[in-house]
Amino acid sequence: MKSFTAVVERDPQTGLFVGYVPGFPGAHSQATSLDELQSNLKEVIEMLLEDGDPGLQAEFVGTQTIKVA
């Protein structure tokens, strides 16, 4: 079983949750709830993996808080 980290944001105009896996081309989706988004992303990733190992082009490291005056 493989694990992937998804970045999740909420679109302020539509209210939809948008998620993507950094460095994994095509691994993105949107939904009205976090549960639906997780299900959608899982489905997309499973379909993409049918073509073989994606050879990720980047790796999620983390987030940083940047304070500006």
Give the CA-based shape: flat
Q: Mean of the pLDDT scores?
A: 93
Q: What is the fold named in CATH at topology level?
A: Double Stranded RNA Binding Domain
**Alpha-carbon Rg, integer:** 14 Å
Give the DSSP E fraction (strand runs of 2 or more residues): 15-25%
Number of domains: 1
Distance separating the two termini: 45 Å
Could you spell the SSE succession in H and E letters? EEEH
The overall strand count is: 3
Q: For this structure, what is the CATH class?
A: Alpha Beta
SS-derived structural category: alpha+beta
Characterize the largest beta sheet: strand count, sense, and whether it forms a barrel.
Answer: 3 strands, antiparallel
Q: Helix segment count? A: 1
Features:
69 residues; Double Stranded RNA Binding Domain; three-stranded antiparallel beta sheet; 1 helix; flat
Short description:
Helix content is 23%, strand content 17%. With 69 residues, it is an alpha+beta fold. A hairpin with a 7-residue loop joins strand 2 and strand 3 (28-31).
Summarize the structure in words.
This protein is an alpha+beta fold. The protein has a single domain, classed as 2-Layer Sandwich (Double Stranded RNA Binding Domain). The protein contains 1 helix and 3 strands. It has one helix at 34-49; strands spanning 7-10, 17-20, 28-31. The chain has a 3-stranded antiparallel β-sheet, covered by helices on one side. It is flat, with a radius of gyration of 14 Å.
